[in-house]
Amino acid sequence: MENSQSHTIDFSVIKAEAMRLGFSACGVAAADVVDAETRRIYEQCMAEGRMADMNYLARYPDLRFDPTQLLPGCRTIICVALSYYPRQPLPDDTYQIAYYAYGRDYHEVMRQKLAQLISPLAAAAGITDVSSHFRPCTDTAPMLERYWAVRSGIGFIGRNHTLIIPRLGSYFFLGEVLTTIKPTAASDAPPFVEGRRVRESSCASCHRCIDACPTGALHSDGTFDARRCLSYLTIEHRGPFTPEQADMVSSQPTPYYIYGCDRCQRCCPHNQRAVPTTEPLLQPNQQLYSMTPTRWKQLTREQYQQLFAHSAVKRAKYEGLMRNIECVY
Ligand code: SF4
Ligand code: SF4
User: Fold this and answer.
1) ∠ CA 16-20-23 to the nearest 5 degrees?
2) In percent, how much of the chain has pLDDT > 90?
3) Catalytic residue at 139?
4) Are 34 and 65 in contact (CB under 8 A)?
5) Which end of the chain is more exposed for a tag (fewer CB within 10 A), N or C?
6) Which helix (H) or strand (E) holds 112?
């Protein structure tokens, strides 16, 4: 293995490559253990059952709270953000799916983009054994990705629990590259957000997302209860709904969401000037715009497979999506 201590890179190189690839923001954080308070809050949330049955979130705590264990010799975490905000939302007179699922599955897209980011960085740092020095992550490792995005300086976590990038909003996929290389001291530069410096920002006294959540999943004390969140219920929950769950899904205000929920982001003032994605792979599947409630209700398994062949909606599976539709139809 090459000597990781010898590899450095100027942050301007990382930034230039990230911009060239169409990322909206990029920052770097020194790889380290997650701070004790963040870990305490995370573990309390799990212990209180607020993450419902997403038990995978409790697995691999050693790795989750110490990302240096995910890559031997890891010194830096590069964080990037890729917009998925669609130019044209689905019409209000039909069922909604979360914006992030309009285009191709983000795992596929981000994986490609991170590989495209790593390649020139390895070349610039003189690294040939790429896999020993870079590890791309996009929901593919137990990482606290919003925590690292904050540490990298690209944004803050809002009361809606999303990563908010000042002036750009929250409609972003996050990706990370763990690496043994270190930005040079001369380039301990601030992160870039569309080429500009990030200014301090926060939710201030706003609580629109808490008010907009139809199921009370967001609490004013800053906690979040996935058991009451339509995104959890319509995507992650397996099997039939309990009467209480069915009531939460069916009594949401119109337009009904049948996959995910964007209400706590749509109402956020930070998203007022969101810029639509220009990434070709994230452009909406045009067939979605012709789906009426009746067509959704009559969706066959074959049509589902064709409509969502490369989509994140596959996570809910046909049975899950039809369960959601049955509930609101
Ligand atoms: S995604 Fe929807 S249900 Fe979940 S917290 Fe946000 S507004 Fe509430
Ligand atoms: S809606 Fe308001 S409180 Fe909620 S995340 Fe946005 S700025 Fe923060």
Assistant:
1) 95
2) 87
3) yes
4) yes
5) N
6) helix 106-125
Q: What are residue 8's DSSP bridge partners? A: 182
Mutational test site, ligand 2, from 203, 211, 213, max ligand atoms within 8 Å of CB = 203
Give the integer Cα–Cα distance in Å for 302 and 305: 5
For residue 201, give Cα distances in angstroms to 161, 170, 271: 15, 13, 13
Ligand nearest to the CA of 228: 1
Q: What's the structural domain count of the chain?
A: 1
Q: Using alpha carbons only, how large is the chain's radius of gyration in Å?
A: 20
CA-nearest residue for atom 2, ligand 1, is: 261
**Tens-place pLDDT, residues 154-204:** 999 999 999 999 889 999 999 999 999 988 754 455 667 654 544 557 899
Enclosing domain of residue 199: 1-329
| Least confident segment among 3-7, 49-53, 303-307 | 3-7
Strands (DSSP E) contained in 138-188 are: 156-157, 163-164, 172-179, 182-183
In this prediction, residue 190 carries a pLDDT of 63
CA distances from 214 to 178, 231, 256, 276 (A): 38, 12, 11, 26
